Amino acid sequence: MKYVLDLLEKAGLLECKPASTPMEANIDLWRDDTSLLDDAVTRPDITFAVGVVSRFMHKPREVHWTAALEILAYVKSYPGKGLLYKKHGHTHISTFSDVGYAGNMGDRKSTSGFCTFIGSNLITWRSKKQDIVSRSSAETEYRAMAHTACEMVWLRKFMTELGLVQPGPMPMHCDNQSVIYIAQNPVFHERTKHIEVDCNFIRDAWEKKIVSLIFTSSSQQLADILTKTTSSKVFSTICDKLGMINIYAPV
User: Fold this and answer.
1) Which among 7, 56, 172, 247 could disulfide-bond with 64, CB atoms 3.0 to 4.6 Å apart, if both were Cys?
2) Which helix (H) or strand (E) holds 171?
3) pTM for this one?
């Protein structure tokens, strides 16, 4: 909380109006008709917003500064918000993998995101713009799933070294049924040459029962706030499911 208040004071926003989300839905930060700024200036709930704004640090404009102030206005609403770790009686690994397809209006690159749970506690998360432009959502999904699977394999090895062996395959939740179907059916090989490495990596992990691919509806996709902006209602619901609470909220 002290860090948040110090940050707000440094930005001159201690008296600003609080915001319910760190970034407005459908905001356009790729406009170049606003003035350039003179000076270019971790929490899972602000990871995506901070990542997007950071892409313009080399040439920030007023619209980007306004977006950065919106993040601070959101943090002011919940200065004591953070992850609460509880005992759930198990240490099973599970993940949610998602993609914001072609969400970057400047170059139409997609944003990958995943969140990893151990014992139902959020342990790691990532939001990153992909390096290349993809012509299909399946390509972006497989690229994101491959990164997620790598994280799962690393965590499984780490947990094993601690003497906590994972029982059975680790569930990976994805909201794209066609991608899951292709991963489980090698007959689509000719149609997926452009994503052959990522596709085969996921298929190999599935066949060896390292991961299990589970379809999750978009409304239950917890990695959504790592790949795109959402409404305040959806945003709040996902934060609750990620295990985030405001420790200074009145009981």
Assistant:
1) 56
2) strand 170-174
3) 0.80
